[in-house]
Amino acid sequence: MSRLACRVLAAALGALALVTGCGGSGDDGSAVEGRRPDGAEVTIRVPADAPTVSDAVSLAQPGDLVLVAPGVYHESVRIDTERVTLRGESRAEVVIDGQVRRPHGVVVTAPGVAVENLTVRNNTHNGVLVTGSAAAVEALPGSGGYDTGDEPVVLLESFLVSHVTATRNGLYGIYAFSARNGVIEHSYTSGGADSGIYVGQCRPCRIVVRDNISELNAVGFENTNASGDMYVVGNRLVGNRVGLTTNSDHQEKLLPQRDAVIAGNLIADNQQPQTPEQADGGWGIGIGVDGGSDNRFVRNLVTGHVNAGLVITATADLTADGNQITENAFAGNGLDVGWTFPTATQGQGNCLAGNELGTTVPADLAAVASCPLSADSPTPTGSWSAPPAPAGIPFTEVAAPGPQPEFPDAGTVGATVVPDVPELPVVADIVLPSPALLADGARVATTS
């Protein structure tokens, strides 16, 4: 009897360990690697040991690795066992395909889970969803994420999404909602009809989004009501309709958004017409802040936007206060920095220092709003004419991605141990990026 078959039998009998006689290899010559009952990991192979990814995940115990062979898997996978690693043997050739009829590709609802080295595509909602919210898995989305009604905030603790390609998904490529203590890294997103990567509803987040490529989405990266130790560093956000947004939204809890660090990112040429069109019609903007406060924008390269490099605004009842824009390089934008507010939410304490900066609205912002600035200093406001946005295309028609870097030694290393709390970046060590940042994995080249 194979080791995996023994596990199924043991589970049926309510046993705590694999039964005597389980060892060696599977009946077909495949190995279900690992040991029991000492708690060491087991490797469950798809399809050698389980025919589908979902079947393999259902057999996994904490500390196990589910290793998936190349193939297209028409399913939605839910991981609700803690400390399971789901990994593809080949990033491009292991594909979880929603066929534009399943809402999610991979759903993570347990702590300590790693999702690595595979492609998720063609889902009506999300490629990868990591969440502590039961409503988010089932509910229809609101304009700023998921409206979870009266559900209490439960934050999933610790996660990792690494070397994942998420393309042609109807809302978000990689979506962390009501989750914290996690990392999204070395991944590629395109064709997100709302955004490529989204982090929402966490405080303190302690989330690091680093070294990703996000292109051909409505928005490259979006942060809503995600506050406290929220880091977006070293990413390539190029060729979307809008590069990055950080905002407060009543549709999610933990309002308002504050205290995120956006540093060392390449944010360029975000007016790509062959992209899905987001409901609010944003276009030609590098960074947009809507009702977010106390955020730091440090040493980003923001270039080639027909509207504006960085915009700060607010809704009728949510101010944007205390945002610091320091040591960034702006070039080739219709307007480098623009601040525009309704009278009731004009904001306070927003400031700039040490930027390579040309045109601003209001004029001379670098002089009149120079950091440091008192917290109650009124933020000046102005207006400008935004260029019209072209119509978008269906997310299903976005160009397919090219090859992306593989997870190192995907088929030979064991399960990934996800830390309870990730190591957070040292902002002083983050440098202004090169225009070639992560260009080897990008499909859309900069045009500036």
Automatic annotation (TrEMBL):
One Pfam match: Beta_helix
Chain residue ranges for the region called Disordered: 376-406
Q: Which domain of life is it from?
A: Bacteria
Signal peptide from the UniProt entry: 1-17
Answer yes or no on keyword Repeat.
yes
Q: Which SMART domains match?
A: PbH1
SUPFAM superfamilies membership: Pectin lyase-like
Per UniProt, the keywords (alphabetical) are: Repeat, Signal
Q: Does the keyword Cytoplasm apply?
A: no
Domain Right handed beta helix: start-end pairs: 160-325
Q: What's this protein's name?
A: Right-handed parallel beta-helix repeat-containing protein
